[in-house]
Structures are given as C-alpha cells and as structure tokens.
Amino acid sequence: MSIEEVVNYQLHNIFPTSVYVGEMNGHVRHKEAFYNKIYPKYQFPRINADGDINTVSESEGKPIIHTEESAVPMMKEITEHIKIYYMEILGLRDVFDVYHTKSWISRSYNSDELVPEHLHSPSHISYAYYINAPEGSHAISFYDKKKGNELFQGVLDYYHEDDTFMDEYTFESTQKYSLHTKEGTICIFPSKTSHGTDSVSEVFSDERLAISGDCIITLKESERMKYSVGHINPKYWRRY
Q1: Is the pLDDT of residue 162 over 90?
Q2: Number of C-alpha atoms within 13 angstroms, CB side, residue 207?
Q3: Please, are residues 19 and 127 in contact by the beta-carbon 8 Å criterion?
Q4: Is residue 191 very low, low, confident or very high in pLDDT (cuts 50, 70, 90)?
Q5: Residue 35 belongs to what domain range?
Q6: Could you give the number of structural domains in the chain?
Q7: CA-based nearest residue to 175, from 161, 197, 154
Q8: How far apart are CA 95 and CA 105, in angstroms?
C-alpha cells in the first residue's frame, strides 16, 4: 500500500519571497528615448581591460542612468511599479519615498554571456526593466540561500545523476527559480535576494538589454519619526 493511500496531510508553504513582474505602459516611448539619448552616453566595451566579457555598465563607472533628464518619464513609471510592489503586494503603508541610488545597463549578445549569481546589498529594492529581449535570450534566476527545507547540508543538492538524493525537484525542494524575460516588462524584488541569469537556448540573435537599478525607501518628511527601524527622511541626514 502506498504512502498516499494511508496518510492524510496538508501542506503549508510559509515565508515566501515575492518577485513582481509588471508591464511598462510607456515602453515604446521609453525604448526610443533610451536608444536615442541614453545609450550613446552609457555605451561600454564588450571586453574589459582584463580581457573578460563585460555584461554591465556598472563595472565601467556608469551606474547613474536615473540622473538623466531623458530618463525621467521612465523612472517615474518604474517608481509607480515599485510602490505597487511594496504597498499592494507586501502590504506596507504609504509612508515612504523611493530614492533611486544606482541604475545601469545589463547586456549580452549570446548564451555564454551570463550575469553570475550576486545580490545588491545594501539597497532595499532592486529591479530589471527589459528594454530589448530577443527570443531565446537569458532568463533571470533567483536562488534560495535560506534553504528552509534543507534537512542537512547538501541533501537537496544535485551534482550529477549518480550523486544526488533527489528523484525530482519540486517547489518545496528547489533552490533556484527562473523567470523568462519579456521585452517591456519590469521585474522587482528585494535587493538581498541572490540572483543572476541563465541560458535558455544555445543561441539567440540581437542584443538582450535591461536597465537594472537599486532603490532605498525612506520615511516621508511628513511622517513622524516614531519608528525604530528604517531610514528617516534624508532632510535630516548630515555629512561631517
């Protein structure tokens, strides 16, 4: 008799990490402004000084797209999505301002040009807005560093077919979740979430390009400074 026939049970998946994917209504206009006005200023070499593939303009000292006048409409729409994320999805009150601290280009031309696993500390919220995403280009992948269901270290790992405890990975045991990227969408997630890109096909043509960015949220100036956590309004910050 199988286990399923003799055991009744309920499953409760707890403590989720929520990733938001939304459509940018002004995408056609934003894409045109990017390629005509922003990209020429933020172009960067495909090969860096060490001879390695360069996938991000951030490493070339160009992480401030959000400061460009031509980027204002795009950044305003991105901010609206961020507010939906933390208020409607996460349930936070409307007591915060959103500050964009860094924004840069993430770019690749073939299946080997991947962004390695990383996170965006010490920001609060990060995003990737897909300006151009040809068919077959990379997925964005998120990695579970908490490993809440790992009974002992390595039990959920997979090295090869003869060196694993797993028959198959399920939602409860997976340590990686991948989302296929679509042009004109924005992906928003907690900055502390480890992520990178993965190939989904051996080849793709054209340029996969996203604007990636980091934000922090601070209390609005109108809010009383009664909270023991979080940033107070920058009006009260000082540099000495």
Answers
A1: no
A2: 13
A3: no
A4: very high
A5: 21-236
A6: 1
A7: 154
A8: 30
Q: What is the mean pLDDT of residues 30-52?
A: 94
Q: Which residue has the tokens 């807005």?
A: 129
pLDDT at residue number 8: 80
Give the other-Cβ count within 10 Å of 30's Cβ: 23
- What's the token pair of residue 190? 């907690």
Is the preceding omega at residue 122 within 30 degrees of 0, hence cis? Answer: yes
Over range 2-23, report the average pLDDT: 83
Please report whether residue 230 resides in a domain: yes
130, 131, 135, 138: CA torsion to nearest 10: -40
End-to-end CA distance of the chain: 73
Closest by CA to 76, choosing from 66, 87, 86, is 66
The amino acid present at 208, given as its one-letter code, is R
d(CA 72, CA 37): 12
pLDDT, tens only, 91-134: 999 999 999 999 999 999 999 999 999 999 889 999 999 999 99
Q: 7 in a domain, yes or no?
A: no
Contacts of 98 (CB under 8 A, 6+ apart): 79, 82, 83, 125, 215, 216, 217
- 143 domain-assigned: yes
Q: Which CATH number do you get for residue 141?
A: 2.60.120.10
219 belongs to a structural domain: yes
